[in-house]
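Tokens in:
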């Protein structure tokens, strides 16, 4: 349990890192806040343990063997994404408000505006916990593994819709911690050129980190597919596996999905289920679980 909890904390570091300065500055009600956050984390750990015991770890995921796309699981994935909308709307709204305040170039924030941003930041932490908790509950309800969810997330949004891996909050997130991931904090640079340059660099680093993690997991997925004697998709997986190994930053099927998958995805409104604001945070959480 201790090891699993540490992995959850590492995954959630992208959230805590953003707001750690807010916790230090506010300096009141910390005990209650941490206690409540710890209880929510325990709930997530319990759900993760249940999912892992039932389906295995994320990297144990086995891609579709009989058909190149599992139509039932894909429809269930979209149902989960649709069900999560009510839980990510508040997160998106709060991130939008914070980003507008942080990006303000005209004048410094007043004391009360600063407190308002801090409150928004603190409110986001339990919201993220609730989002992850609900996602795991939906996975259990629809009998999907985290590997299923991750697999169809990447194929739907990056390979099919060509969304950016670095999609996320538009404000600057900086300060690498030198570990597996980054400690992220706000940077309110009043020089517009410097701020835009820093934001581009931040998105570049974000893309590099997440692309590498996605690539690594899909290499394992496709190698898992080869271990099954039932796989009729050996050639398709084999070709993409070679490309992934040649370029460790490559997103699977970024040049175009196999026609069977693309044609099937085209029957659904996949775009409607995508949320760019929390994309990078969700990917960071999954790749560290």
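Residues out:
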């Amino acid at each position: 349990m201790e090891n699993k909890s540490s992995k959850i904390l590492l995954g959630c570091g992208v959230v805590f890192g953003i707001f750690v300065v807010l916790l230090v500055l506010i300096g009141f009600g910390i005990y209650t806040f941490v206690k409540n956050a710890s209880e929510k984390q325990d709930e997530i750990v319990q759900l993760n343990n249940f999912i892992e015991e039932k389906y295995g770890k994320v990297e144990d995921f086995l891609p579709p063997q009989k058909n190149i796309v599992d139509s039932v699981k894909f429809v269930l994935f979209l149902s989960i994404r649709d069900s999560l909308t009510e839980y990510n709307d508040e997160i998106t709204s709060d991130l939008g408000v914070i980003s507008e305040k942080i990006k303000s170039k005209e004048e410094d924030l007043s004391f009360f505006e600063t407190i308002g941003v801090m409150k928004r930041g603190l409110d986001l932490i339990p919201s993220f916990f609730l989002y992850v908790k609900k996602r795991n509950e939906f996975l259990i309800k629809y009998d999907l593994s985290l590997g299923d969810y991750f697999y169809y997330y990447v194929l739907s949004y990056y390979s099919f819709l060509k969304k950016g891996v670095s999609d996320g909050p538009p404000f600057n997130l900086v300060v690498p911690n030198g570990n597996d991931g980054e400690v992220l904090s706000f940077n309110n640079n009043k020089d517009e050129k410097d701020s835009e340059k820093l934001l581009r660099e931040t998105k570049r680093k974000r893309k590099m980190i997440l692309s590498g993690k996605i690539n690594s997991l899909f290499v394992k997925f496709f190698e898992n597919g080869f271990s099954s004697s039932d796989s009729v998709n050996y050639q398709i997986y084999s070709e993409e596996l070679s490309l992934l190994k040649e370029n460790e930053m490559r997103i699977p099927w970024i040049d175009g999905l196999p026609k069977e998958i693309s044609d099937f995805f085209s029957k659904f409104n996949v775009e409607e289920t995508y949320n760019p604001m929390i994309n990078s945070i969700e990917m960071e959480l999954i790749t560290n679980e």
